[in-house]
Protein 1
Amino acid sequence: MTISQPSMFSGIPIEARDGTISVLSTLPQMADALANDWPSDGPMFLAALAALVGERAGCFSTRDVHRAFIAAAIEAECLPDSYMKN
């Protein structure tokens, strides 16, 4: 019998240019967000992409990906203010 591990991370809210907020809670959702119309292409964006690839290769943990994704979202200024206050 396989027991699924509960997610240790809550979702990460991302605010789109039109003001809508999406909560991303899986690595595929984060990959899609980065690949489709991400508002920045700076170094944190590239680090988040590398972390996603590294996680698939077993070089990075899920926690590393979440940290890199949050850093990319801060760089792109797409985290809602309420998230930044936490």
Protein 2
Amino acid sequence: MRKNPYAGQFIVFEGIEGAGGETQSKLLFDFFKEQGKQVKRLSYPDNKGPIGELIHRFLHREYEFSPRVQFLLYFLDFLKDKQKIEKWQREKMVIISDRYFTSTLAYQCAQSFPLQDALNIAQIFELPKPDLVIYLKISPKTGIQRKLKEKNNLDRHESSKQFIESVADFYEKLIKNQIYSKWVVVSGERSIKEVFEEIKLQLNFLYEKRRD
């Protein structure tokens, strides 16, 4: 019997605003479900919970928080799911997440929060690490254009090209040094179908050798 090479794997989608993480994570979730794999999906910020609601209000300029407070707020949003993620890993579920702690490494560290402090905090609290981060690479210009097509009222992150450029630069640093997890890059500038086909190719390449 062939083993499921994805069993227990924690796969995260990352990218700047408008990169398509929500869309591609849903497509991968549905793809695995159709194959009969046991799969769970997460999305951050978790807007259904009180922490995610507070983050939403911050993003829409109802509150002002320093980068340190932002970091702790986002970190709590991930930490609250620690036991759930660990349970799913023990049960050999495939876990797919639209954003995770790797977003905070880019967004808050791009605002001067020390990267090593962030990594130390994650280690102290034993935050589950993803096995793979798929970075959907697009230009800040493309990201803003996509968001403007979706809605008129952009949040504080979506509306600042300068900030998005800083975040994109920090993502490149994380990828170059393979910080916190294994990173792979997929060009997100193409159609949804083309991007998803490349994601499947990347996953086949990385995980096929895990099969018996």
Protein 3
Amino acid sequence: MQASRNSNIWQNLDWITVGLFLTLMLLGWLNIYGASYTFDSTSIIDFSNRAGKQFHWILGTLVLAVILLLIDHKTYDILAYIAYGAMILLLLATPVLAHNIKGSMSWISIGPVSLQPAEFAKCIVALAVAKYMGRYEFKIRTWRDMIIPFGMIGVPMLIIMVWQKETGSALVFLAFLLAFYRQGMSGYVLWVIVAVVALFITSIRLGDEVLPLGTGSVGILTCMLLLTVVEIYFLCKEHRMRYQALILVGSVIGIYGLALILNIFVTIPFDWLSMAVVLLLVAYNIGISLYWHKYKLLILAGFTIFCMGYTHACKYAFSHVLQPHQRIRIEVLLGMKEDPNGAGYNVNQARIAIGSGRFTGKGYLNGTQTKLQFVPEQDTDFIFCTVGEEWGFLGSITVLGLYLFFILRLIKIAERQRNVSTRIYAYIVAGIFLFHLMVNVGMVLGLLPVIGIPLPFFSYGGSSLWGFTLLLFILLRLDAARMEQLR
């Protein structure tokens, strides 16, 4: 019976995904050697260099993958909650056992090996969340149904961000939203995320700029105008009355027009005026919601008031909550400060390396930026600049194409599942890989702040490699068992 079941595993295994995994891991290993190569470098499998160490991690990865496939698929469901509890305890204990590495307390040293528990937490939390949301009676009907799933990802996220001071690993848990959205989570949650990010960027970037007319801040006025647009949009969408939109828009334009005229004679505080306009819209929203018994819009009113307070709190949080190195990275990204030799150094050198590769690249092991060690962390977080320099535009597009095919394959695996828990887990895995890809490439190109996100299967490191392997091969084991689950 056991032999027959093992045989079915290999027959039902998604070998296309396995092939993509092996291809990406092989390319990653070669690029790690290219990133750390010098003219007196030893063999690619010599343990004295980064590529040799990664080779040993790869051998361990292959063994780990086989073990994960041989474990009974029901074990992952049975142990999900137990493993989640144990992982929370480990995350809490990590700063006590860890050494301070560049301000982060997330690495535990075991002899010559350093492991980052946060990398393994993603898989454990994904299994626990999938088990909870995969229950027969679980349905997303209201926001209350999402309290526990959000709590399950919020607890490890806060521990990693606040207790371990590892922002990048904590933000990865936002990738779980892809699975939540697929299971029926309201699209308004995505609106909330976009609004929070937009208000933060606007208040930080424009908060210190003074209005050319009147008094006040450009950032506050801009944020209030955004909230005004959102209030009017959702009010009119809910009540489906076009004339109402015209009246509200006309009223707002009239108020600002009158203020501009009065500003000729007396100074008008436009940021305070803009807040008053938003509060008037909120009051109108509350009144019309109570009159028509459409209480959904009361949530919008509450969120708008929250955003007004949040907008004013952003500047304080930016100045007093974020670490200095985090602030300078955001300032450089938003163009508030030029720091080519400091916080902006990594990104500037990465851009130079990628640009110097041109269309076809300089050739394997021939990257000058790489060989002269201009790019810090070039075999970990900034490994993609090695791809761009040595393999050029063609090589970069090929690698990104492989990742795209890989992620689309994961989504296909997710969609063919009959078991709800497995489908949710598969979407979480796809979301995590997509998040890592977008953020890593984005920060290398200077489109996103540098937050220390590894490129899956490419960046040097055993913790990340094994963490991604756990995510992937548990999914492949569950997928291989889908025919058993139907019987």
